[in-house]
Design goal:
The complex is a heterodimer of chains A (about 325) and B (about 190). Helices cover about 70% and strands about 0% of the residues of chain A. The termini of chain A are far apart. Chain A has helices at about 1-35, 55-65, 75-95, 110-130, 135-165, 170-180, 185, 190-200, 215, 225-250, 260-285, 290-320. In chain A, helix 8 (about 190-200) packs antiparallel against helix 10 (about 225-250). Chain A is an all-alpha fold and about 325 residues long. Chain B starts with 6 loop residues before the first helix and ends in a 20-residue tail after the last helix. Chain B has a domain at about 35-140: Alpha-Beta Plaits (2-Layer Sandwich). The longest helix of chain B has 16 residues, at about 160-175. In chain B, about 25% of the residues lie in helices and about 15% in strands. Chain B is α+β, with helices and mostly antiparallel strands. The chains are: A mainly alpha (about 325), B alpha+beta (about 190). The interface between A and B is medium-sized, with 14 and 13 residues.
């Protein structure tokens, strides 16, 4: 009985975080982006500086008609948003927020493998949506998504592998337990590669060629309306949270902070994640979209060699230490 | 010297970060009224007491958006045996602001100072026909017309004030000399011989 309650509680907490954190990131994006462009952003919804804007958006989406195009592959079309969103929920459950056992939804031994494999499934949602919509813009978006996934999954995996090598384990908690402060400069290249590749996998600007609204409408999501569209948007912001949390755990030392690792671990994790989320928003505001060929070039000629160099560096240092 | 590779990327980030710390430029209009400069072309007010129904404004209007109706009234002679005086009385003065292009020609052309720019701009309507505003509305807008902006320091005096002052000075100069015995001297009004 106690076990069941424990599991239920953990799941409930993970679920609440999964619903709240993306909204927080979304609201922050509204405000930060506005101020970076000299605007105020939402000011009315909820009264105080538009804090309820995303709630209002959600209500609006819920009221809209759920349209499925006549020529669409109905089943796949309707399933795609769930496929895009759920993997992030699963990943969130295994990310440790603090050093104790209570700070993780479910500790998984092969954490890095699990996380990267499941995150890859999320992109499948966009592919399904693109193919099932029976719309040429959706198809273009879907194919671009596929191309982007193929090229950026490799550097992401290589960068994560470098950390796993350094720690000698693929468990996320294990990596954090082995973390030392000097890993930060040691793995900095890997961190950058991981972060940039993750950004591209989320199709966030400046890597938003697959959704490029000014040329292919909204890519794979063109035909979606109402709640299903909202789920895709939620998936994007959940993806930001997951990517930031993963980068924090793998490269920035997770719960390790200047003081109070035991009591304040969750706080350090949150602060680092929030900072990274801010950087993602910042990048979106600052840089123009990369062209499709530039995207591929960046992945294959820059990120992959950098990730390989990082692995080599990790190996050399590791051998040097062990002697 | 070639710039450092990636310095452009850093510059882009710096620009957005700096903008974030600065004050925003958003005007929260319905909550805060905008500060409009003098001579703002908001709406045209009619000072109908000055209007003589000369129709110049209606005829100069490029859009033909001014409607004027009038009738002639005859006033009885001022003194017995005199001539009857007739004048035009304004019946209708309307401006169709759905046609008006705010060129201000009517205001420029009015010889009697009956039309003025007002900075009032909140007169949107839900029906285009309701944008034709009649004389009472146009008269009301006269109350929103601001004072003309002050002249620059050292500027020439306005013509009408200069003329009034000249007359007043002349009268003032004459008053002390006026006594019942001597008739007033012929004043040197014209030319002012040196």
């Amino acid at each position: 009985m106690n076990d069941a309650l424990d599991v239920a509680l953990r799941l409930a907490i993970v679920f609440v975080v999964f619903l709240v954190a993306p909204l927080l990131v979304g609201q922050t994006e509204h405000k930060v982006m506005a101020h970076m462009q000299g605007r105020l952003g939402p000011m009315y919804a909820g009264g105080f500086h538009g804090w309820a804007q995303l709630v209002a958006d959600g209500v609006k989406f819920a009221q809209k008609e759920d349209v499925v195009p006549a020529a669409a592959d109905r089943r796949v079309f309707q399933l795609a948003p769930a496929v895009a969103l759920l993997p992030y929920l699963l990943v969130l459950a295994v990310i440790p927020a603090g050093p104790k056992d209570g700070a993780v939804g479910q500790a998984v031994d092969a954490g890095v493998f699990f996380v990267l494999a499941v995150m890859g499934v999320g992109v499948l949602g966009s592919l399904m949506a693109g193919w099932a919509s029976a719309n040429k813009f959706s198809l273009l978006g879907g194919v671009r998504t596929a191309a982007q996934l193929l090229s950026y999954e490799l550097p992401m995996l290589l960068a994560a592998a470098s950390v796993a090598m350094a720690a000698g384990t693929v468990s996320l908690s294990g990596i954090l337990q082995a973390f030392e402060w000097w890993w930060l400069p040691w793995q900095i290249i890997g961190a950058l590669v991981f972060f940039v590749a993750g950004l591209a996998e989320l199709q966030r600007p400046p890597f938003d060629m697959p959704v490029a609204d000014s040329e292919i409408i909204f890519g794979a999501y063109t035909e979606y309306t109402g709640l299903r569209f909202a789920l895709f948007l939620l998936a994007e912001y959940a993806g930001i949270v997951i990517l930031c949390a993963l980068t924090t755990v793998l490269f920035l030392g997770g719960w390790h902070g200047p003081f109070g690792d035991d009591g304040l671990g969750w706080f350090w994790t949150l602060v680092k994640t929030a900072l990274l989320a801010f950087v993602i928003i910042w990048l979106r505001v600052s840089y123009p979209r990369l062209r499709e060929d530039q995207l591929q070039k960046l992945a294959w000629t820059t990120l992959v060699p950098l990730a390989l160099a990082q692995i080599a560096l990790t190996g050399i240092v590791k051998v040097a230490i062990n002697q | 010297m070639t710039p450092l590779p990636g310095s452009g990327l850093a510059k882009g980030l710096a620009v957005t970060l700096r903008t974030m710390t600065k004050k925003t430029v958003t005007a929260q209009y319905p909550d805060a009224q905008p500060e409009l400069p003098p001579r703002t072309r908001g709406v045209i007010g009619l000072f109908e007491e000055n209007c003589t129904v000369c129709m110049l404004c209606a005829r100069e209007c490029p859009d033909w958006c001014i409607y004027i109706d009038s009738h002639k009234e005859t006033a009885p002679p001022a003194a017995p045996g005199g001539r009857e005086r007739s004048r035009n009385v304004l019946d209708r003065f309307a401006i169709d602001f759905s046609l008006c292009m705010y060129c201000g020609i009517c205001i420029e052309v009015c010889p009697f100072d009956a039309l003025f720019w007002s900075p009032e701009f909140e007169y949107a309507e839900t029906d285009i026909h309701e944008l034709t505003h009649e004389r009472d509305k146009l008269r009301e807008w006269m109350w929103t017309v601001p004072e003309p902006p002050a002249l620059d320091p050292g500027a020439e005096e306005p013509k009408e004030i200069a003329a009034a002052r000249k007359t007043a000075d002349k009268l003032a100069a004459r008053i002390p000399q006026t006594d019942p015995d001597s008739p007033p001297e012929p004043t040197e009004e014209k030319g002012g011989t040196p």
